[in-house]
Amino acid sequence: RHRPTLEEIDAARTPFADSLWEAGPLVAADTGAPADRAPAQEVVSPATGAPVGHIASASPTDIANALSAATPWDAPAADRAEVLKRAADLYEENFGEIFALLAREAGKTLPDAVAELREAVDFLRYYANGASDDRPAAGRFLCISPWNFPLAIFTGQISAALAAGNAVIAKPAEQTPLIAHLGVSLMLKAGVPATALQLLPGDGASVGAALTASDRIDGVAFTGSTETAKRIRASMAEHMAPGAPLIAETGGLNAMIVDSTALPEQAVQAIVESAFQSAGQRCSALRCLYVQDDIADDFLKMLKGAMDALRPGDPWALSSDLGPVIDADARTGILDHVAKAEMDGRLVHRIPVPNEGHFVGPCIVSIPGIAALEREIFGPVLHVVRFKASEIDAVIEAVNATGYGLTFGLQTRIDDRVQHVTEAIEAGNVYVNRNQIGAIVGSQPFGGEGLSGTGPKAGGPFYLTRFKAPLERDARI
Ligand code: NAD
């Protein structure tokens, strides 16, 4: 396959510089907007505040119509697979518009947008290959997705549910409905029946909550915060059939240990990528670094130097390698957290960012003692804890005690330590001597344990099985 060069990518996205996108619910047999649908709201760029388009949220009538129309996709598995692969091709062909929307609506830099499209396409092809005619429990799946991978995670959930023969009702994050609309439009264009894939944009608290309280939904795929997953679990228990599956991928308090044998350049690069890329808005992002105290001073000096080389700016510009956080609420929440640390004298380093939009300066905050984070700070804030060589088991204990278990990183050159730490740590994905970022669909399934998710891991051989049959309930979420 031809991989576009940066110049080709730039040429393809440029025509969309001034475009405005109009989008709304995609409901089968739609005969026009129902009377209770509110006027469309403006969507603006998190980097500049410039308008990106308008989105009409789903009304109660849209929701009722979508629930009545939803019909499992009963085409033979080979036909479903072919359609999903055609959708992958259409995603690739429309890369210019996709990159423009990812940059403008979600604040993604170009390298992030390239990686995101790649992942979305990989999900479509990977799950298409897993489509089978063995569908004991195909039904109506609700797919609720977050804004931080508004195309990749959104497409991953939907393509898995469709590959297993379900009907899908997709509820995208309120911050990124336009890219979701484009993704669904391309899947419908590829040949997914309109009754098998419908889009209901709108708030979690209204549209999302109404859907998770419907007894016409047979299962839910959810990616987002642990708090929302618990709310959805409770609503499903009250309203849906017993055993209705919840496939949840949730938050993390991801840690990394850097011991005194680690290669410093390698570890610094891994940390900068893991903590600050995508402005720290990845579920896998490094939140808490445990660095051995005898190297800590020199190591932090190197890390600060590497941070100073980051270039935050409008993600639409090719020169930027760090975008904004998603919205004003996110920015305020992160800045409050950093301000408290600063008042306590724990702000170690911060780099400047543009004044416009929702930028947050990547920063380092220290934590005294052998402690772990108490809550996820979803932004470019790296917490640092110093530990003594004798305290490594206390570090592992503190990290495990959080109850979260998404990603974990280790930088060391001691073989026994690799074995000891990777066996003792409770996390879905462990990264040794590399960056702590996501996974590769098909070869590195991704997902958390405990409060970080119900499993099985996305992009892995067992994921589709959960869309095919009722499940046991997970105890933690
Ligand atoms: P969120 O939980 O606020 O929202 C996620 C989705 O849930 C949105 O579509 C939202 O509208 C919907 N929602 C909110 N309340 C709802 C309700 N009561 N009923 C039904 N739906 C509701 O999360 P977010 O801020 O969009 O995303 C960030 C979070 O997602 C972080 O915690 C991050 O760690 C997590 N995340 C996890 C993974 C993973 O693979 N484990 C991947 C990406 C993001």
Automatic annotation (TrEMBL):
<comment type="similarity">
    <text>In the C-terminal section; belongs to the aldehyde dehydrogenase family.</text>
</comment>
<feature type="active site">
    <location>
        <position position="249"/>
    </location>
</feature>
<feature type="active site">
    <location>
        <position position="283"/>
    </location>
</feature>
<comment type="function">
    <text>Oxidizes proline to glutamate for use as a carbon and nitrogen source.</text>
</comment>
<feature type="domain" description="Aldehyde dehydrogenase">
    <location>
        <begin position="40"/>
        <end position="466"/>
    </location>
</feature>
<protein>
    <recommendedName>
        <fullName>Bifunctional protein PutA</fullName>
    </recommendedName>
</protein>
<comment type="similarity">
    <text>In the N-terminal section; belongs to the proline dehydrogenase family.</text>
</comment>
